[in-house]
TrEMBL record:
It comes from the Bacteria. It holds the Pfam family CitMHS. It is a multi-pass membrane protein. The chain crosses the membrane at residues 28-49, 61-82, 102-126, 138-157, 177-196, 217-237, 243-262, 283-302, 322-344, 356-380, 392-414. Keywords: Antiport, Ion transport, Membrane, Sodium, Sodium transport, Transmembrane, Transmembrane helix, Transport. GO terms for biological process: sodium ion transport. It is found in: Membrane. It comes from Candidatus Portnoybacteria bacterium CG11_big_fil_rev_8_21_14_0_20_44_10. Residues 24-365 form the Citrate transporter-like domain. This is Sodium:proton antiporter. Belongs to the NhaD Na(+)/H(+) (TC 2.A.62) antiporter family. One of its GO terms (molecular function) is antiporter activity. One of its GO terms (cellular component) is membrane.
């Protein structure tokens, strides 16, 4: 009874969030209410050690929020020191049309996502896209960036949390995920980008402005910020959470800027202290992020997500059942958090065939793009691009994402059938 009630509350809240524009009610308030009500159900249901479950969920949320705060602060620093204006003017000189700019930005997001991670990539490339597009073109490019980042993260062992989970669980090697997931992920990227890109209107007027030349100190700070985005990878090898890497990078950048301000107090770029960038953080958006994650944590503790995985795969699944189960889990990732679904699949499915685990990494990574709230990049895109509502994404990107999702699976199947 509690499980049915919890799922009903979650889905009702999900619908309310999707209709935020029509209801005129903040999605953040809905997310927080869902989270608290679901955890009250956990308490009243007396389901296991609630304190331990809360500590576990809070620890995961803390890591993600710190990661987001650090990444968003570093992006604000890059903005202040002129990197995005510099890139804007360089591309502007190429006299490219809006569609060409759209394809270049989304392709770079796809590639960078594999070497950074899909969340950081989304934050960075949304800033770049906002320099080139506005109105509906910005909504289309933001939607395409979310899909591109998720697709890029699916073929790299460090590009997405679920892919990293499967890699660390020895379900496949780094070489296997690169070789077997690259073509399906590339198919997802091209299919979705081409479908969304058809709607890009080539009548926007680029601003005829040029960034001021960047000096040595600006380039030094920019280089440190960019290097900071690669530090989470090294922290993974050191068995530390990724946010330690961003905190280290932010600390170094902060120290360098403070020391440079002492030596060059007359510098225009150095006139703004790092503390100012924290004031630009959208706290309401972070609360929304926290609310969604807390709600998912409650569902996980209630056993809802594990029950779904058991139902999808059955006790002793055949190869065919595993394939269809992976596809189903990918579809469910559009609504539920793919991390606990993947964790449950790791425990349930006993196959040693790495290709089947590659399919799971592909489907849960790309499946989150079917709906805006289905992935962390989608949620953060909602917070950065305010006009990108659940409904707007549904109209712009959900059908292209679904078609790309199916095509990506088809390419994986061809590889699996003919190449083994």
């Amino acid at each position: 009874m509690i499980i049915i009630l919890s799922v009903a509350i979650f889905l009702l809240g999900y619908v309310a969030i999707s209709q935020e524009h029509f209801l005129k009610i903040s999605k953040t308030s809905i997310a927080l209410l869902i989270a608290v009500v679901l955890w009250l159900l956990v308490v009243f249901g007396r389901l296991g050690n609630v304190g331990f479950a809360l500590t576990e969920s809070a620890g995961e949320i803390f890591g993600l929020v710190i990661f987001l705060l650090s990444a968003m602060t570093l992006v604000e620093i890059l903005t202040h020191y002129g990197l995005f204006d510099y890139l804007y003017t360089k591309l502007l000189k190429l006299n490219l049309g809006d569609k060409a700019q759209f394809f270049i930005i989304t392709f770079l997001a796809f590639i960078f996502s594999a070497f950074l991670d899909n969340l950081t990539t989304t934050i960075v490339f949304l800033q770049i896209a906002s320099r080139f597009f506005s109105g509906k073109n910005l909504l289309r490019s933001a939607s395409a960036i979310v899909i591109a980042a998720n697709a890029g993260g699916a073929f790299s062992p460090i590009g997405d949390v679920t892919t990293t989970m499967l890699w660390l669980a020895n379900k496949f090697t780094a070489q296997t995920i690169f070789t077997q997931a690259f073509l399906p992920s590339l198919t997802v990227f091209f299919a979705s980008t081409l479908l969304i890109g058809r709607s890009i209107v080539s009548d926007t007027k680029d601003r005829a402005e040029y960034a001021k030349p960047l000096g040595k100190i600006e380039w030094f700070v920019i280089s440190l910020c960019l290097l900071s985005f690669f530090l989470p990878l090294f922290m993974t090898f050191a068995h530390l959470p990724p946010y330690f890497g961003l905190l280290l990078g932010l600390g170094v950048v902060w120290l360098v800027v403070d020391l440079a301000r002492l030596r060059r107090p007359d510098s225009t770029s150095l006139s703004t202290s790092i503390e100012r960038f924290f004031q630009k953080t959208d706290i309401a958006s972070l609360y929304f992020f926290i609310g969604i994650l807390l709600a998912i944590g409650a569902l996980r503790h209630l056993g809802v997500l594990e029950m779904i995985s058991h139902w999808v795969f059955t006790a002793v699944p055949s190869v065919t059942r595993i394939i269809w189960g992976n596809i189903a889990i990918g579809g469910l990732s559009a609504v539920f958090d793919n991390i606990p679904l993947t964790a449950a699949a790791i425990d349930i499915v006993k196959t040693i065939d790495p290709s089947l685990w590659v399919l799971l990494a592909l489907t849960v990574g790309v499946g989150g793009s079917l709906l805006l709230i289905g992935s962390a990049p989608g949620i953060i895109a909602m917070t950065i691009v305010k006009e990108l509502t659940f409904g707007a994404y549904l109209k712009i990107a959900s059908l292209p994402a679904l078609m790309a999702f199916i095509l990506g699976i088809f390419v994986w199947f061809l590889q699996y059938h003919y190449l083994g």
